[in-house]
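User: Show me an example of a complex going from sequences to structure tokens.

Assistant: Sure. Here are the input components:
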Amino acid sequence: MTNFSDWKFTRREVLKLGAASAGVLAATSLPAAPATDGGRKPINATVAMDVNGTTQSFVLDTRTTLLDALREHMHLTGTKKGCDHGQCGACTVIVDGRRINSCLTLAVMHQGAKVTTIEGLGTPTNLHPMQASFVKHDGYQCGYCTPGQICSAVAVLGEIRDDIPSHVTADLTTTAQFSTAELRERMSGNICRCGAYSNIVEAITEVAGSHS
Amino acid sequence: MKPFSYERASSPAAAAAAAAKIDGAKFIAGGTNLLDLMKIGVEEPMHLIDVNGLALDTIEPTSEGGLRIGALVRNTDLAADQRVRRDYGLLSRALLAGASGQLRNKATTAGNLLQRTRCPYFYDTNQPCNKRLPGSGCAAIGGSSRSLAVIGGSASCIAVQPSDMAVAMRALDAMVETVRADGQTRRIPIADFHRLPGARPHVETALERGELITGVTLPKPIGGVHIYHKVRDRASYAFALVSVAAIVQKDGSGHVALGGVAPKPWRVEAAEQYLPQGAKTFTEHLLAGATPTEENAFKVVLAERTLHAVLSEAKGDAS
């Protein structure tokens, strides 16, 4: 029996190995993948937007989502692709001051937009207060949803300051206020499969407190 | 996703004309539903007309004392508008009960009205679905139907219209404003906007080819207690199993529409005379002729109980 304890692959190496063996299979024994374009030819368009303070111009296939433009064309891989269908929130970025799911919008629809990703909020040596608070409160386990959680959290505090109500706001005619119930409702578009929710709430609550 | 050409519209009339002229053209605004469906091959537009640049993003008072909501007003901005919160609380509540903060920031008023069903068989391109592929059959009938319609469906389709906002607008007697491909404008009562499936479930609205929604008007506020009560499988970010949109007056009269039970927001004006007699009698009239499946029969009971909760709350608030 093979002694698996002798295998000293890192997770990244295992992933590479998997990808390589899949590539070999595809090259040697599988027919070419069926075309998914329905016989239509890809169409390119030009778009320019401000990403984290730098204006960038791209020629992109019109099908490119904002998420794929950020990750694959601008190499800003902090923003994550989770479900790619707007259900998990891992791709949350801030566009023109509002948090959105970058997977459910096309890059070409954002001509002239101002986009802030996790890389634009802070840097490893100069963390945004929300990033620092997530570190302090251990607001994650695997970390995959974290960039989306942090972008969403920063925007949520802005939405409360801007008096945008939520499903749990008791009286629509009063001004929106921060509370744990409000926070949980407003963050419901960001799923954490590790279940770090209680620490995420603590991290955001600390930042909210320092704002008030 | 299949390749498509893309243009930014210059005016509502030009957008409507282009959409009527180009085969396979679709409008895109928020895109939160359309792109989701394009990724799985349910929608395959040849050409997208981006209407985001059209100046249809304001909320203005009307001369009749109501509000005119531009087609591009985002769900977040509509729910947060002070006039909507004060005079049409039902609408704010319905919007805030739907989707997530991220989606509400992007989704528009017109796009919300045009949301397509969440029927699992509509989403699964390996299954027959008369809505997705006319004439292919309906896998939902006899299939997993827990989330599907108990009334208003047909032998061709039992899909449910998923919008919360539309249910509130039905109770509020909203009007949908459009521009057609020939440049003419018209107003469609919300009651006539969504169609029942009949034998043609792929025709979901009264819109004609190329016709573009430019706004929604709300009549003068009618007061009353405004309640939107949504029952779903989790506390947030889920579609309705049953929802009740209600405006209840002090004398017990009111307007009530249901979500989650039918292919369109379900309101029967003639049943509303029974509202003062309580949830049981009213529900018997509102859902008369319902044909639930074994899996979704619970919705009829849930509707009555949710209505009971809403009417009790209204009584408490009104006193």
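The lines above are the inputs; the final block is the predicted structure for all two components together. Residues 1-34 of chain A have pLDDT under 50 and may be disordered.
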